[in-house]
């Protein structure tokens, strides 16, 4: 019996040591990398969280990640941390998921100045637009590169909104189909129209490049072609001409 008691005590000691080791391991992987930008990674999938933290830590000039299983865990354990943004992983959940809607509304209500970027597998324009309407500052499909994901985070932190170019173009095509296959103005291509829209909104080339998943040099080439097609001498004229063709529709309802 003494030997059994000893075995039980020994097992208890080993179990406690294992529990503490697991807790220490979990705490040590909560944070990864050293950076001025710290992102709270919220995802129910442990492998996704840890993979993102490791990937972010390997990229020079990237972001530091702090991982949480969900919003509740972050609010309990880390909501007072100095967080630059939230990366919310939703897997294949859709924008009409009640729990997802509640999470986004809670973040928007309780942390209005904190950019939230959603990472998911769905890529339908309607799904993405619904996510953005709930307060997210960007949507990152799971099939984008690490560089694009980091760019999306930096863009959202800087005040922009990130949506991949293919989703933007698909949404634009749907709008044109509903409007009777209206083509972009000034004989612009879809990509040129997207770049021109960024110029009209006063966005710098770097932000346009991030949003459309282009290089800055490619954006510059597009802008030169756009100015030639629109017979504009500079970015200001591009913006003016785009706004001017929309003005009649926008001012008609306000005319007295």
Keywords:
256 residues; alpha/beta; 11 helices; 6 strands; 57% helix; elongated; disordered C terminus
Q: In short, what is this structure?
A:
This protein has 11 helices and 6 strands.
Largest sheet: 6 strands, mixed
What percentage of amino acids are in beta strands? Answer: 5-15%
Q: Using the CA coordinates, give the radius of gyration.
A: 24 Å
**Strand pairing plus helix content: what structural class?**
alpha/beta
Pick out the low-confidence regions: 1-30, 248-256
What is the number of E strands?
6
The dominant shape is elongated
Largest sheet, order of strands side by side?
A: 1-3-2-4-5-6
Helix content: 55-70%
Q: Overall mean pLDDT score?
A: 78
The H-and-E topology, N to C, reads as HEEHEHEHEHEHHHHHH
Please give the count of helices: 11
| N-end to C-end Cα span | 98 Å
Give a structural overview.
This protein is α/β, with parallel strands linked by helices. The chain has 11 helices and 6 strands. The longest helix has 27 residues, at 2-28. The relative contact order is 0.07.
Chain-wise SSE layout:
Elements: H1 2-28, E1 31-32, E2 38-42, H2 46-58, E3 64-68, H3 71-77, E4 85-91, H4 98-110, E5 116-120, H5 125-133, E6 138-141, H6 146-157, H7 165-178, H8 190-200, H9 205-212, H10 216-230, H11 235-251
Parallel strand pairs: 2-3, 2-4, 4-5, 5-6
Antiparallel strand pairs: 1-3
Helix pairs in contact: 8-9, 8-10, 8-11, 9-10, 10-11
């Amino acid at each position: 019996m003494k030997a059994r008691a000893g075995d039980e005590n020994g097992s208890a000691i080993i179990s406690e040591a294992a529990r503490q080791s697991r807790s220490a391991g979990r705490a040590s992987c909560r944070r990864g990398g050293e950076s001025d930008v710290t992102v709270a990674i919220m995802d129910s999938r442990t492998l996704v969280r840890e993979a993102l933290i490791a990937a972010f830590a390997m990229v020079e000039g990237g972001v530091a990640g702090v991982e949480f299983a969900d919003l509740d865990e972050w609010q309990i354990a880390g909501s007072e941390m100095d967080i630059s943004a939230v990366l919310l992983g939703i897997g294949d959940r859709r924008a009409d998921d009640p729990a997802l809607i509640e999470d986004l509304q809670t973040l928007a209500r309780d942390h209005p100045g904190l950019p939230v970027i959603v990472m998911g597998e769905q890529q339908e324009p309607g799904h993405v637009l619904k996510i953005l309407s709930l307060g997210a500052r960007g949507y990152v499909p799971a099939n984008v590169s690490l560089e694009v994901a980091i760019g999306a985070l930096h863009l959202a932190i800087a005040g922009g909104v990130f949506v991949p170019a293919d989703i933007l173009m698909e949404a634009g095509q749907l709008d044109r189909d509903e409007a009777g296959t209206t083509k972009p103005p000034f004989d612009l291509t879809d990509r040129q129209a997207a770049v021109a829209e960024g110029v009209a909104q006063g966005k710098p080339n770097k932000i346009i490049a991030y949003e459309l998943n282009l290089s800055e040099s490619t954006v510059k080439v597009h802008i030169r072609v756009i100015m030639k097609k629109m017979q504009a001498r500079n970015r200001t004229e591009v913006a003016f001409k785009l706004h001017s063709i929309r003005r009649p529709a926008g001012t008609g309802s306000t005319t007295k």
